[in-house]
Amino acid sequence: MSDADTTATSLLPDFKSAAARRHRKLRHVKDVVTHYMMAAGGIGVIIAIVLIAFYLLYVVLPMFKPAGLDHVATYAVPGNRDAETVHYAMEEQHEIGMRAAEQGTISFFRTGDASLVSEHSLFAGTGDRVTAFAAGDPSQALLAFGTDTGKVLLVKHEYKVTYPEGTERLITPRLYFPLGEVPLTIVADATPIKLVSAQSNNERTTITAITDDARLVITSFKREESFLGDDVEITRTGTMMPIEDTVTHIRLDIEQRELYLADNTGSIHYYDISNKESPRLIQRVQGVPKGVEITSLEFLAGGISILVGDSRGRISQWFPVRDEDNNYTLQHIRHFEPRHAPIVTIAPEHSRKGFLAIDRDGYLGLYHTTAHRVVKKKSILETAPEVLAISPRANALLVENDQKQLQYWHVENEHPEISWQSLWGKVWYESRAEPEFIWQSSSASSDFEPKFSLTPLAFGTLKAAFYAMLFAIPLSILGAVYAGYFMAPKMR
Predict the structure, then answer these.
(1) When comparing pLDDT for 131 and 227, which is higher?
(2) Euclidean distance between CA atoms 306 and 491, whole angstroms
(3) What is the dihedral of CA 117, 83, 391, 71, to 10 degrees?
C-alpha cells in the first residue's frame, strides 16, 4: 500500500468506533421518538377532525328534525257556548287562553282544562250589536269590534306575570283600552259596520272599516305629548269614500301605511294610506282565477307580505316590489300546493315567517314562506273547523270545530326555515326586487326575514382559497428550490 493510500484510509471515519456507535444509537432514539411523535400527531389530527365532524352533526341534525303535533286536550268551548267565536289567542307561556265571542264577550281560560279565569262583557248595557271583528298584529294583541251603530271599540289583552312568595308563576290576564272604554263613532250617520281592521301603537291608532252601504272609512288618532310630558293631545283625521265592489276582507298593515281589500271577484285592492285624508289606490290585481273565491287574507309576521287562501285550497304569498321607476307594485311571490278543500283560516306565527292553515276538511298544515316548504301536514279534525290560533312562541295551538269543541295541541317546530331551496337556491326575500343568494342571519328587528343562503359563503370560501393558493404555490415552490440548492447547509 502506498503512502497516498494509507493517508486516504486514515481520513475515512471509523464507523465502528465508540463515538460512532453512540451517534448512531442517539440518532436511532431520535428517529424512533420522531416516528411516534409524528404518528401521534397524525392520529390526533384525525381524531380531532372526527370529533369536530360528530359535533357538527350533533348541532346540525336537530335542524332537520321533522315537526311534531301532540294532542293535549279536547274540551267544550269556555264561556258562553251560544255565542259564535271570532278569535282565540294565548299568552307567551300558552298557559292562559283568550276567547273573543261575537257578542263582545272576552273569556280568559286555562288551556290545560278550559277552566275560566275571568270573563268580560264589553257592550253590556250599551244596546250596540257587534257586526264586525278584527284582530290587529299579534305583537300588539289588539282587538277591534265594529257595531251596528257605526262605532268601533278597541281593546288589548295583556298578561301580568308575577311570582308570589312561596308560589309558582302566576299569570294574571287583563284588558286595556287604548282609546277609552266607550266605543268611538266612526260613521257619523250610524251606518252599521260590515268589516273592520285596526292597528295601534304608542303614537298612532288607525281604524279602517267597510260600511253596509259600501263605503271605505279611514280614521286615525295621533297622540302628541307636550314638551314636558304633562299634557296629551289626540288629533283625529280621516276620510270616507265609496267602494264599487263587494269587499269580503280588509287588512291594515302594522305600520298603518298600507291597506288591502279583497272583493267577491277575487281581486286585491292595494292602497297607500300614508296620508289618511287622501288614500291612493296603487294597484288592483287578480289574486285568484275567475270563479275562485278568496276565503282568507292575513298578514305574515312583519306586515310586509299578505297570505291569500282560496276556495281551491291554495295559499299564495304576495308583497310589494319596487320597479324600475322606483314605484311599488304588488307581486305574486310563491304559492303552496293546493289542498282538497277550501282554506278556512290562516294563523301567522308571531315572530317568524311561518304560518298555520286549516281547510274545511280539518286538515292542518304548517308552512314556512322563506323556505317555501310544507313543514307538516296532519288531519286533526273530523268535523269542519271554525277558528285557529297559535301561541306567541309557535309551540301550541287552539282549534275550534263546528261542534263547539276546542282542541289544544303542542307544536314542535324548531327550524322550519331550513330547506334545500333556502340554503342553496335563489330566494325571493321580502322587499327585494328579485330572487337572490343572500346570507344575513340576524337583524335588530324581530320582524326581519333571516337569509340563510350558503351559496355566498361557499363561493367566498372558494374565492379566498383560490387567491391564497395563487400566492402560496409559487412562494412555496421557489422557497423549496432556494432551500434545496442555494441555502447554506447549516441554515438549511
Answers:
(1) 131
(2) 72
(3) 90
Cα→Cα distances 71→180, 239, 360, 398, Å: 39, 47, 20, 10
Residue of higher predicted confidence among 462 and 13: 462
CB 424 within 8 A of CB 405: no
Pairwise CA distance, residues 362 & 392, whole Å: 22
Cα 451–Cα 303–Cα 288 angle in degrees, nearest 5: 95
Q: Which of 249, 254, 257 is nearest to 210 (CA)?
A: 249
Instruction: Write the pLDDT tens digit of every residue in 434-492.
Output: 889 888 877 666 667 888 888 888 999 999 999 999 999 999 999 989 888 888 877 87
Cα–Cα distance list, 361 to 118, 342, 387, 437 (Å): 33, 8, 13, 38
For the cut 90, the answer to whether the pLDDT of residue 332 exceeds it is: yes
Calculate mean pLDDT across residues 184-198: 93
Please answer whether residues 260 and 254 qualify as being in contact, where contact means their C-beta atoms are separated by less than 8 angstroms. no
How many other β-carbons are positioned within 10 Å of the β-carbon of residue 165?
Answer: 4
Amino acid occupying residue 111: T
* Model confidence, pTM: 0.84
Q: Percent of the chain, pLDDT > 90?
A: 65
pLDDT at residue 20 tops 90: no
Among candidate residues 390, 384, 391, 387, the one with its CA nearest the CA of residue 360: 384
